[in-house]
Each structure stands twice: as structure tokens, then as C-alpha cells.
Amino acid sequence: MSINNNNDNNINNKYGVTETKNEDGTTMIDVTFTDELLQNALRQAGVNVNLGEEKLLENEEKRQDLIKESNSKDGINFFQKFDYIPLKDLHELPAIINFFPPPTNEQLLQLVNSIESAGVITPLLIMDNDDGDGYMVICGRSRLMALNRLYEISNLDKYAKAPCMILDRTKVDPIMIQNLVIATNMQYRTIDRTTLIKAVILQQKILKTLKKSRGDFNITRSLAGIFHISKTSVEDYLCIDRLHPEIKKRVYAKIITLQAGKNLSKLDHEKQLAALALLGEAKINDMERIKILTNPKYGRILDPVAQTMVNDTWDLRLDRVSKMTPSRTRVKLDIERSAIDITFKALISAKRTHAIEEQRVDSSNNYFKISVNKKQIKEYTDAGLIDKDLVDKLRETKFDKILNHKF
């Protein structure tokens, strides 16, 4: 497996990795995962996760032999060699493989200070390249960055090399390598949700590959255990992998919410893009509209023009959603102290009128919700400026009691 750090940007640009500079100087890495892009990128980098069936079985046989060896009397030692390796010979994995965000400036500074005072406590985990051109750093990118920073600043020989455990290439396969990257980052980092989603999606691809040779096991349960999240969260995150890249990109950027993305994943890519084109980023998270578009059942609806029942269709749904207005809105009132009593009475009367017109027997707060500043209202009631009974009537939620509120 050969990694050339100079080719990293070429690999990234070609295989769906984009880098965005944040205001604090850090870089946010975004990876667009598709089976073809991921397979090609990993093969280009020398780490092929989606292996062919023959190669998969060959690697699995080797893995099982290693498991037997590890259970033997002497066990197995993956780390048979420790050495100090010059920084110039250490190359980072491409971002398509190690897609976890690099440390922030503050985190990097803390690590630099730690290494200055105590040295590198945990050696880097590396593996030599096939062509003899240095080593790729499987675990320890942040430590490598900190050492490079220290050496640039001080030019001291003690920072020119990094302590490394050199992994025996003959005793690992690409799937093990990707698992090491994910496992170590999950163990030592606070992971944001976007990165967690990407890690879950990639780990699922790895587990699906293993399942072909290892037999049946529950992938969702395994993912929940690996990432210490619920099975429901795993299922929600895996839905994101079914999104069109344009939709997925907006979920990762938090323009589209996870809930909206999960619902959009029920549609094929063409309809996902149609929904985005219709609603735009401003309305794409409106769940009332989204649920109409993504409802899997196409029943009978009333044609408002012909006033007859017709079969629902995708085009009719698009038309309905395009004409929709928000079913509710929020109005904020800043009321002068002397006008509180009369305003509350007016709101109570409006709430009663609406309840009579709608004839709803469910909680009134579902369709006419009034919130108040409890701390300030208590001051007013304690001072005798308004009656507590008036406040209770304003906040009443039971239909029959609202009907009895008269002035």
C-alpha cells in the first residue's frame, strides 16, 4: 500500500472530497460518499474497502488464521517494531480515508504544549509503503501536525523524529486499517454529528463487506455498539446515505435538518431534487410540506376545481405543496404594563372564538398556543396588577373550560 502525500489533493478533488476554510483558520473536510467514488478513492490510496469476492475471501482466510494465532499460546504481535522515524518520511492518509476533522488551532496548541512539556506519550501507528517511500500514518495525524509545528518553530533535533509503532503489513488488511482509523478517532475525540454520520455510513459499508464472508450478523446492532448510540440513531444516520449528493451535502452543512433528510430519503433521487427545487433551502425543512411529498401511500384526494375524488399523484402533490401556506405562525407581543389586563382578556376571547369555530376537543395549545414570561407575570400578580385567575384562563388548554371563559 503506497501513499504519496503530494497526491493527496489530487485524490481528494477527484473523489468527492472538498475542503472549506473556517473563520478560525481550521479546515472542514466534506466527503461525498458513493460506492463508486469510495471504491475508486480507496483503491487509488491503496486501501480498497469494497474488495472483490475472491480477494475478500482470501483476506478473510488470513484474518481467521490471525485470530487462531492470537488465541494460541504465544499469541500474535501486530506491533513487532518500534522506531523513531523522521517527520519527512511520514505521510498523512488522504481525507477520503481519514475524514475526521483535523484539530482546531486551540487543540493543536494544547497538543504542542503537551509535547513540549512531556514529549509524545503515545507513539504514532504507521505502516511502511510498498514502494519504500516512507510511511503512512494510520493513527496519530494530530501528533504529527504538532511535531511538525514544533520543529518548524524550534528546529531542534528532538522534534525531527516521531516515536512510532510500525504495523506489520503482512498481518493486516485494508478493512482492518479503516477500522483502526475509525476506532481511534472515536475513542480520543469529541465527534460532531456530521462526522459521526459519515463514520457510521462508512463503517456500515465495511460491515456489509465482512458479512459476505463471516455469515449473518445484525449490522445495525453492531454499529450501535461500535459508536455507543441507539439503533434508532444508526437507522436515521444510514438514511442519509440514500440521499442525492446535493441533498446530502446540505444535510452535512446543517442547511437541511436530519429529520427532513431522513424523510427525503424515502424518495428516489429525481424526486428529492424536485422537492429541493420546489421548496428551496428556505422551506425544505418544513415538515408539513415534506410529509405530503414523502408519504408512501397514494390515496384518493378531492380535486378542488372539479370537486370530485381523484387518485393522488406526484404532480398533484407538487402542485398542492406549491400552493401551501404555513399552517401556523408566531406573533410576539410586547405589552405596556397598564395594557396587560385588557390585552389578556382580548386574547382569551379570541381563543374561545377560535375553539368554537374549530370545534376541537384536543388540547387547545395544539392550535392556539400562548406563552408568557412566567417570572414577570408572577411579579405582576404578586403586586396585584393582574388577577392570577386571568393568567390561568389565558393558559388554559382544556376545550370545555375555554368555552366557559366569558367577559
Description of the molecule:
It contains 18 helices and nine strands. With 407 residues, it is α/β, with parallel strands linked by helices. The strands form three sheets. Strands 3-7-5-6-4 form a five-stranded mixed β-sheet. A two-stranded antiparallel ribbon has the order 1-2. Strand 1 and strand 2 (27-31) form a beta hairpin. It is elongated. It starts with 7 loop residues before the first helix and ends with a helix.
Which key features would you list for this structure?
5-stranded mixed sheet, about 400 residues, single chain, disordered N terminus, alpha/beta, about 50% helix
Series of H and E elements: HEEHHEEHEEHEHHHHHHHHEEHHHHH
Q: Widest sheet: strand order? A: 3-7-5-6-4
Radius of gyration: 30 Å
How many strands appear in the DSSP assignment? Answer: 9
Q: What class do helices, strands and sheet pairing give?
A: alpha/beta
Assign a percent range to the helix content: 40-55%
Bin the strand percentage: 5-15%
Give the uncertain stretches in residue-range form: 1-20, 26-57, 66-76
Our count of helices gives: 18
Shape assignment: elongated
Main beta sheet: 5 strands, mixed
Q: Span from first to last CA? A: 82 Å
Average predicted local confidence, pLDDT: 77
Short description:
The chain has helices at residues 8-14, 35-45, 53-70, 105-118, 141-154, 174-188, 193-214, 219-227, 231-239, 245-252, 258-264, 269-283, 287-294, 314-323, 340-358, 374-382, 388-394, 399-403; strands at residues 17-21, 27-31, 81-86, 90-92, 124-128, 135-139, 161-166, 300-303, 308-311. The protein is α/β, with parallel strands linked by helices and 407 residues long. It has a five-stranded mixed β-sheet with strand order 3-7-5-6-4. Strands 1-2 form a two-stranded antiparallel sheet.
